[in-house]
Write a structure and sequence with these properties.
alpha+beta, 41% helix, globular, disordered N terminus, two-stranded antiparallel ribbon, 11-stranded antiparallel β-sheet, 14 helices, single chain
Amino acid sequence: MSKDKGASVVYTVEDTYKGIVISGQIKYSNDKVHFIISHQLGDLFGYKFFVHSILFFPNKYSGVSGIRIECDELDYIYDTRKSIVSEKSSFNNGAIKLELHDTMTNISEEKQFTYRGISVKYSFSIYRKAQYTDINYPVKLNSVFSLFFDETNDYTWIYEVFWIAFQFIRYLCYRQNIQLSEAKLLFGPDKEGLYSHGGKIIIDKRFLMDYIEKESVAQKKYIEYEPAKNVIHKILQLIADDNIYLLHIPHSSEDRRYISPSRILLICAAFEWEYKQAYGESTNQERIVLSQEVIQLLNSNFTELTGKKKSLYKGYVKSSEKFFKDKPLSSKIITALNDFDDILFPHIRNHIISIDDRKSKNRKIYNQIGHNIESIRNKYAHGEINRDVNKGAAFDTRAIEWLVYCMQLKRAGLPSCDIAKIIEKLFQL
């Protein structure tokens, strides 16, 4: 234990992938504070800790029962206009009468997911605030994403649940620079089933994106609650289980517009990972049998060869084994594009100058996209990053971005009609 002017701090190490949690109490109020450590550096003179997030709440509470998240992006995802009952305007004297639903009316259906064996319930709702100090917005509506669970003082687990929700909002917006620097901690419920808040989670600014998104982007590019509401719990479960690829999500809308070699590699990695989840291992029994027959045929002539021919033949055998072991990237892309043809082809078609025969043309375009992506991915993966990304490769990569979301949403159980709506809105197609 160490003491300083402000707090008494206890160092504890928890068995979690997040590492160390430093816990303590504020000296005079006895309020609790917990520092989530991202990493540490040590030498002969001690340790230096780098704080990722801070959990703070009043001492009168023994544990936390929920998290409440507010950010600008949620106001669009769960449209705040849901709370408006009616609006009446008078053209004669300029009077406006605005009627709002009560708070309980705007709460979404409560669903749940599990994390580390513990059930987490969630809901969306709309809160209103009277702001007498803000002359532009005397009444402000905010959408809220709330998570509820049995009371716990496992602060690392609380932080991890918060981070799942943070990643979820990033996924809905397809960008990392969500304007969320803190969330409120909930305590209760009381006898009437209501929760109170008095603490919060604060994220260190170093771990947030510096670039603040333009409001015009925030208003347009996101996944709305309505078409996704029946699978949101499944998406949250995929994130909680670390069973969905998110590393390719760009930092901002500006990064999203720019297709770089690193972006292509990340998007291809996302596609291949999701392809494996959707289609399983790419080998099948027929392919295995065929590979054995071809390799056996090659080996039957191997003993008759000498010198350079023998060395060259070894290369053919190894290439054949590799070919039959896994489908090439281009083949996977073509398969997936054909499976989502009804959703994606109308948008891919908009980028083609002329179309004579839809059926033959889409096969031709899918083959072209698949082989182009495989070729450029292989070049970048082998260090040929001095090549510029041409316009054709950039468009082909966009198509793979759309495809990845289609595969993920289908795996979550969303029907094609709703996937189409989401893709059009999220990517502004």
